[in-house]
Amino acid sequence: MALLSIWHGKRDRRLQTAGEGKSKIPPSVGSEHVKLGRWLTASVVGVTLVAFAYSIFFKSILKKQLWINAPLQVVFIALMFAATIASLVFLYKARLKLWRGVFASLSGAGLVILGFQDGVYRSDDEWMFSHFYYGLLAAMLMIFATAIVPEIYQDKSQRWRKIHTILNCVALLLFIGQGITGSRDLLNIPLSWQEQHLYQCDWKNKTCPKLTSTSYKL
For 86-94, which contacts have Cβ atoms below 8 Å and span 24 or more sequence positions? Predict the structure, then answer.
């Protein structure tokens, strides 16, 4: 509701300024919108990184003992997390268009690289309806929308404002899709005590090995 009220306030102020040359609505509405947008972007990227960190650590690093078998890969993953977070912070501080483009690209690239590490559940066989791809795309759209904020206020043709609106509408649809696909994936991903048996199943022929009294060790 707060986002909607701020958006309506910005729109009303813009219309009043265009029609009367001035507006009674304070200009702080725009700065509040930018702050909320930045908080939303940071939250989306943060949640994405936390999800990646959980999956990579428990499903890959811990399970495969990568710190022993591939220590350089563990160092690389840790550096990618740090670089992605740092790039987002620098994106917020950058003023020049060039540097905003650089840091936005680095943030997006970091998310992609981390997302394709072992252990992350992606549903590659049904990528068009994948919780992972919806979330990754939504996070990258939020980063891009943050990077173009100065252009929105400087462009009198309103082109960047329209692009910003379209991006946010697409992101909203992706968030809705995430809610649906996330519930589905929770049912598809087996619990730790089920993995040993389920991963022996032949899903193509729909057959699984017979259970024994020692199949599960709780």
Answer: 88/41, 88/42, 88/45, 88/143, 91/143, 91/146, 91/147, 92/38, 92/146
Which residue, 7, 63, 60, 64, is CA-closest to 33?
7
16, pLDDT greater than 60: no
According to DSSP, the residues that pair with 207 across neighbouring strands are 202
Query: Residue written as tokens 């909607």?
Result: 4
Cα–Cα dist 170/175, whole Å: 9
Is 181 or 103 the better-scoring residue by pLDDT?
103
- Among 10-19, 79-88, 105-114, 144-153, name the one with the lowest average pLDDT: 10-19
Section 66-85 average pLDDT: 94
What band does 216 get if pLDDT is binned at 50, 70 and 90? Answer: very low
- Sequence-distant (6+) residues with CB within 8 A of 58 are 119
**What are the DSSP E strand ranges found in 95-169?**
none
Distance CA 107, CA 88 (A): 6
Between residues 2 and 96, the one the model is more confident about: 96
Q: Round to whole Å and give the CA distance between 135 and 123.
A: 13
- Closest Cα to residue 40, out of 138, 119, 124, 117? 138
CA–CA distance, 171 with 182 (Å, rounded to integer): 16
Instruction: Tell me the whole-structure pTM to 2 decimals.
Output: 0.73
CB contact at 8 A, 146 and 41: yes
Token pair for 35: 């702050």
